[in-house]
């Protein structure tokens, strides 16, 4: 039986946010949402502005990260997310980010950053 996990690394210019084994990763790309499981076909994807990455660890725990642009690379047994910036959902003040969504111009960098952060929190709520 094929292994049900793959290696996942999420890195940003200022930090390596996550490195471990996962059973599932879901991300918003510029062509839509994609789910990655073990033994996925190799691919490259551009992460969408205002998106997030949600992962399910090998032990079953779910984690989410607000991700501001970047790329993902899938190989035979590894997924690498190279984000322009990223933040774990448990570090986000969702009330403050919802306030930004209300006041920011839709499509602006500020709006997309807040949208990403709210998505990440909601993904694991």
TrEMBL record:
Keywords: ATP synthesis, Cell membrane, CF(1), Hydrogen ion transport, Ion transport, Membrane, Transport. Its main location: membrane. This is ATP synthase epsilon chain. InterPro entries: ATP_synth_F1_dsu/esu, ATP_synth_F1_dsu/esu_N, ATPsynth_dsu/esu_N. Produces ATP from ADP in the presence of a proton gradient across the membrane. The gene is atpC. It is found in: Cell membrane. SUPFAM superfamilies: Epsilon subunit of F1F0-ATP synthase N-terminal domain. It comes from the Bacteria. Belongs to the ATPase epsilon chain family. It is a peripheral membrane protein. F-type ATPases have 2 components, CF(1) - the catalytic core - and CF(0) - the membrane proton channel. CF(1) has five subunits: alpha(3), beta(3), gamma(1), delta(1), epsilon(1). CF(0) has three main subunits: a, b and c. Residues 6-86 form the ATP synthase F1 complex delta/epsilon subunit N-terminal domain.
């Amino acid at each position: 039986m094929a292994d049900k996990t793959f290696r996942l690394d999420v890195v940003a210019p200022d930090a390596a946010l996550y490195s471990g084994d996962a059973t599932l990763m879901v991300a918003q790309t510029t062509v839509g949402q994609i789910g990655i499981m073990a033994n996925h076909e190799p691919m490259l994807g551009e992460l969408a502005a205002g998106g997030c990455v949600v992962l399910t660890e090998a032990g079953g725990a779910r984690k989410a990260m607000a991700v501001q642009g970047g790329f993902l690379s899938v190989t035979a047994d590894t997924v690498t997310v190279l984000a322009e910036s990223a933040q774990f959902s448990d570090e986000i003040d969702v009330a403050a980010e919802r306030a930004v969504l209300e006041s920011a111009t839709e499509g602006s960098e500020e709006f997309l950053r807040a949208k990403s952060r709210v998505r990440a929190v909601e993904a694991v709520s």
